[in-house]
Amino acid sequence: MNGIEHGGLDGSQAVLYDFSTNANPLGPAPAVIEALWQADRWRYPDPNYVALRKQLGAWHGVYPARVLPAAGTSEAIRRLTLAAWLNGVRTVWAPKPGYADYAFAARALGLAVHEYADTDELLGGFAAASEAAALVWICEPISPTGQSLPASCWPALRRLNESGNAVIALDRAYQPLQLRGVDAVHADLADRVWQCFSPNKALGTTGVRAGYLLTPRDPTQGLVDAMLRLSPSWVLSVEGVALLGAWVDPAVQTWPRASIDTLICWEHCQRKTLDALGWRQQASVTPFWLVRPQQQGDVLAQRLMVLREQGIKLRDATSLGCPGWLRVSVQSPEAQQALVDAWRRAGQGAA
Fold first, then answer.
1. 291-342, pLDDT tens digit by residue?
2. How far apart are CA 292 and CA 295, in angstroms?
3. In degrees rounded to 5, what are phi and psi of residue 279?
4. What pTM was estimated for this model as a whole?
5. Helices 119-128/153-162 angle, 10° precision
6. In whole angstroms, what is the distance from residue 95 CA to residue 237 CA?
7. 23 phi, psi to nearest 5 deg
8. How far does Cα 233 stand from its chain's mean position?
9. Separation of first and last alpha carbons in the chain
10. Sign of CA dihedral 218, 220, 222, 223
11. What is the pLDDT of residues 167-226, one digit of tens each?
């Protein structure tokens, strides 16, 4: 309905093997299932989410007032963009390739959108622009590439933040399932920018639309006030409260980390499988990455349609700024074999 292509269900046939989403394929986490079953659906949740904000604040080591619940990252993007507009921001900088919602939310409000390919382009363009203030979206690790921003960009982003002309928002949706390397975000910068978290991906429960933002340590009060005013009376259902409350449980925290060894093994096998199909593949630090089949244009579109009819879904990365590429997520060996068999059958049919 919003004009943006997403992974997951699409109103067509059932998805048997879903390579199109970034959800943990080993999910859902058992302890989270238990928490969701125990959620009290007979009552409204606390509209101020006092207990939940205390839990999340304690886990991050910040005051509860800095925690703003949200109905997932997409809702947070839209609300923060609107709040920034109400506080005089008229320009948004969005990564490309990147999640289309950053630019979509801005254009819905008539804001100017500048898309940047890397932080050098962002910093150079920002320095040359005449806007008094702008909202800048950063994603780490990056979707759809699954890559990490270079270490050299973080000091420059801190200088941009210190200039006072940028509201920097850091999308952290994909970090909990980072397969290799360390968290690249410097703690001193993280404490000075807006951060968006949506642990439902790592927990394999993307159907529960729940996330939260952390405000900067010294935020613009007008922006925080606008975020609170714009929030629905109950932005989270009781299921969302249960998921986020479970997220900070030490037993639940170990579950995504325990998934990583299996995901790395599956990733290794999947890359070999896609190599055998002749697909180009990009490097990644996450359980998703970009691939480019030899077939392009109408032939590729037809193949994807045939696979979808067989219950296999791949993510066309055109809406993410990468035409001709697909974003694939790690899936089980069974799913990988189903993809290979269906792809080859589709090719025989085309012949």
1. 999 988 989 999 999 999 999 999 999 989 999 999 999 999 999 999 999 9
2. 8
3. -85, 135
4. 0.92
5. 30
6. 31
7. -70, 145
8. 24
9. 36
10. negative
11. 999 999 999 999 998 887 877 788 999 999 999 999 999 999 999 999 999 988 999 999
